[in-house]
Amino acid sequence: MATPRRSNRAVWRTVFLLGLVVGAAAVSFWGIRSMPLPTVSTSAPPADAPTASIVSIAMPHEEPLPPLGPHRSTFQTSCTICHSTRLALNQPPFAAERWHQIVEKMVTVYGAQVNATQQKEIVAYLTAISERKTNDQSSAVELAAVGRSQRVTATERSQPTTG
User: What is the CATH number of the domain that holds 135?
Assistant: First the structure.
């Protein structure tokens, strides 16, 4: 079987590009060859020259321990493979249904290796720490309300106060 012949245009293009590369290499070689080498000074800097010190700060990378709760160990072994504990701790206080949707998405979309029992345990843990976070926020609001000599409920918190 005969090989197809290259067109004249393709041959000349190849010759031109090859010549361009060889020419650039020659110019580069001869141009560098004639340049003087940089000199390195071994003398000390003048006494009045400002000196700069190198400062580096190494911040520790410590993950907070997840709060105590039911099935904490399942959360630690299943979720902290991909997520930091800060991610779960900084989430808003979701209800159990929302946590179930999030955990289900981690399994179906992102391929988390968690079985159905572990999913329920993770949802129970996240719901428990979310409820604790909600209760802690309510306690803080109640403590702040002591100064006003009245108790503020969750529904009153969302409404603006008048003076």
Answer: 1.10.760.10
pLDDT tens digits for range 47-102? 776 666 777 777 777 778 888 888 999 999 999 888 888 887 888 888 999 999 99
Look up residue 78 and give its two tokens.
Answer: 């299943």
Residue 35 included in any domain: no
Query: What pLDDT score was predicted for residue 155?
Result: 47
Mean local confidence (pLDDT), 30-51: 69
- Say what the pTM is: 0.48
Residues 78 and 97: beta-carbon distance below 8 Å: no
Q: Tell me whether residue 125 is in a domain.
A: yes
Residue range(s) defining the domain that contains residue 132: 72-157
User: Is residue 146 in a domain?
Assistant: yes
Q: Does some domain include residue 39?
A: no
**How many domains does the chain fold into?**
1
